[in-house]
Amino acid sequence: MIDADEMVALIESCRREIQAMLPVDEFASLSSKTRQDYRQLGRTLLQRARYAEGGVAEVMTATQRPTTYYKRLAALRYYLYADLVRHLKSLHSALSARPVDRLQVMAIRAQLQQQRAVLHEFDIARQSGPTGERRKRASKRQALRGLPGDWREQLYQRAAKGKYADAILVAALTGCRPEELRRGVLIRRVDNPRSGMGEIRFEIDGAKVKAHQGQPHRLIAYGAHDPHPLLEALRIRLARRRELLVYIDSPVNFTVEIRRLARSLWPKHKHAITAYCLRHQWAADLKRHAAADSVSQGLGHASAKTRRHYGQANQASSRHALQPIVIESECPVKPTAARVPRHRAASSTESTP
Asked: Helices 32-49 and 66-96, interaxial angle, to 10°?
């Protein structure tokens, strides 16, 4: 026997649970890829929670990195929200059908009751916050310490006959993100009518682009006769063509391959070398030779403050640094807000004679 009042109360209770899960509006702004990643991570976390002694709270807080904790928090919140919406829609459909499928309604009710219990655990864990001792995140630019000045050239030479040779070359010459390589980077040889010189141009569609964040598109160019060994290698690749589209299938596999190649080259190096190390090295080169905003534009940042996290000028080799001749981006770089000295702020409140 189905108690209609009980079912209505259950539906209303679940709706309140959804509304309590922080602003639902933020889910609307999530990209399809982020939704997919959150669904996968949320599903994995709930599967782990079934066998963990501390349940949902244990799997959420089993990390020393706050960034990992908050990613798990967001993924679980989205997964539970999406799952509740799905259950409620199924329940409405089952109750409105004629005749009512009682077995289906009972199964959905059991799922909703179980979901409410998980929601309760999630809410307690969310309010408690991260419980582990915070571990400072190591910057990938630290991994550049101790590497030879020509480490990028050595890495490319080791990869030259492999699947990711072109991708490593592009990442080294542009500092682009692995995700941007997945989308594809277009390389073109052109003659610039303004300078009368030949150029090798890289056109990059940005990742991490939102309303006020990131560069949707950027261009990086080198002189066609730049003697840098990495550009010489690229000229060989472009010998019989004027365009080349370089892309990868998996950013994860790309980074795994770079780690493997680096370990084979420098087995005693203390830090793991990843695709982002190429990005840090490129930023270090620009900080030594280019204008500050060019660093932000080349990295695909819309704000000047973000570049401080990437490479340092003293990590650029005088012999092996890259020097692009053109860096352009779709949006201007927002300057870092200047801090007003305290004594100035206090004096501004005083009355003038």
From this structure: 90
Same domain membership, residue 293 and residue 206: yes
Q: What CATH code is carried by the domain that includes residue 161?
A: 1.10.443
Q: Hey, is 218 helix, strand or coil?
A: strand
pLDDT tens, position by position, 104-117:
777 777 777 777 77
pTM above 0.70, yes or no: no
Range of the domain at 57: 4-128
Task: Specify if 96 maps to a domain.
Answer: yes
Give a yes or no: residue 319 inside a domain: yes
Question: Does 220 share its domain with 199?
Answer: yes
Report the SS3 class of residue 188. Answer: strand
Mean pLDDT of 8-17: 68
Q: Out of 68-72, 79-83, 127-131, 228-232, which region has the weakest mean confidence (pLDDT)?
A: 127-131
User: Are 168 and 267 in a shared domain?
Assistant: yes
> How would you classify residue 63: left for phi > 0, otherwise alpha for psi between -120 and 50, otherwise beta?
beta
Q: What residue has token string 């490129």?
A: 282
Lowest mean pLDDT among 92-96, 166-170, 172-176, 322-326: 92-96
Which residues are CB-neighbours of 97 under 8 A, at least 6 positions away? none
CA dihedral 276, 278, 284, 286 (to 10 degrees): -110
Closest CA to 48 of 63, 35, 30: 63
